[in-house]
Each structure stands twice: as C-alpha cells, then as structure tokens.
Amino acid sequence: MLAQQRQQAIVDLVRQHGAVRVSDLVHRFGVSDMTIRRDLELLAEHDLLVKVHGGATAADASSTEEPGFAAKSTVQQEEKDAIARAAAGLVQPGTAIAISAGTTTWTLAHHLAEVPELTIVTNSLQVAEVFHRLGRADQTVVLTGGVRTPSDALVGPVATSAIRSLNVDVLFLGVHGMSTHAGFTTPNLLEAETDRALVAAARRLIVLADHTKWGTIGISTIAQLDDADVLVSDQRLDPVAREVLAGRVGELIMAEREAA
Length: 260
Fold this sequence. Notes:
By secondary structure, the protein is an alpha/beta fold. The chain is 39% helix and 22% strand. The chain is built from 10 helices and 15 strands. A hairpin with a 3-residue loop joins strand 10 and strand 11 (183-186). Helix 2 crosses helix 3 and helix 5 (77-88) crosses helix 6 (103-111). The longest helix has 15 residues, at 3-17. The radius of gyration is 19 Å and the shape is globular. The two termini are 13 Å apart. The model has no long low-confidence stretch (mean pLDDT 89).
C-alpha cells in the first residue's frame, strides 16, 4: 500500500470510529510505529484529524468550517479521479459547460484536455489554471471575478452577476456535503449564492461527490437532491445512501477505479 493510500485509509477510519490508536494502525497496516506517527502528523497538519497521545481523534468539523484547497486535494484521490473520468465521458465536443470550484471538479478539468471546442465558465482559479496550462486554441475559458475563498473559488456579487448573464448546457458542481434533508451543501454562504447562480444558468446539473460527502452538512444549501440530473459518486458509497440517491436524483453513476 502506498503512503497516500494508507493515509487516506487512516482518515476514513477516524471518520468512521471517531478515534484510532497508533498500535492498532501499526497492526492493521504492517508498518512501523514511527511511520504511523509521521502519517498522523501530516494529516493533522492538513486539519484532517487531531493528533493525541497514542493516536488521533476526528477533527471537530462544523457546518461553517471550510478546508483549504491543498488540504482537500490530498484525500480520496483515487475516488475523485474515477469520478472525474466518468464525468468527462458525459461532455460532448462543442458544448458550453460550467465547472464550479472544488478538488473533484479540478480533477475533471484535467480529464477534459482532449475534448475539442469547449466553452468553459468557471469561478475556480484552480480549474482556470488547468485549462490555461493546456493552452488549446479551441477551448474558451470564462473566469468570473469575485472574492477568493479558502477553496480558491471566486464568489460574491461580482461573480454572481457575471454568471447570471450566461447560459450553459451543463454544470459540473462540486459540493462539500449531501444529505436527504439538506440536499447539496457548502460551508460558505457566499459560495452557496454563487453556486445557485451556476445551477440556474445551466440546462443540466451534474453533481460530483465522493462517498465521504454523504451525511456531511454545510451551513448553506445549494440545491436539493431532486435537482440533480446526474450524480457521479464512487463505489465506496454507503448502500443506504445509494438507495436514497437512486430514488432522488435523475441518474446515479457509480464510477469505477481505473484498473492497475
């Protein structure tokens, strides 16, 4: 198991059980005590858990806590890549698409390199940078203005006003959390308003959300589950969540990891 895979598994265990012991992790993963302690220190630096004597506990995440882009980009990488590959297959050449901010949508941007003649509207500095580096002359990127958030989204009145003047074929929306009652949510009030403008500007809504987003609730709702034409998640999504989502969204796609 690679270090990143082990660290992701540790985060999942902490979220599931609330706490883990170093000794148990050493036994589970077959690595040294020092290796596990280094893993916990790294994850604690990214605010993914709290390191305590002899182990770690879950971070006390609130509905308004917004992790930075760098922290979020280190977790669920394989799942996000699988989701992004599946989502990229839904994009037709020559269409106008919107891409919201987030690490899964940022991963999607990388998978759109070979799709010709796209017009991309985004409020994500990170997504815009991907297309800028690609440098395709047949891809047009419209970057909204606005105030920058910890997740490198541009939000606020300037961004929202720019988006409301546009119409796109499909929106790829990344979310902080999803639940039966709260729907798709974010911890940032201004980002929620901007994302709602993106939803209104699109004829079709495709939500990208890995399995850890189920049951997480941010302070502000972007859209209800029923509003999603398509939800792309990964194979680790809880069976109960699959059943609920399959009955609420237009189509549920369970992305497969790329074969080794």
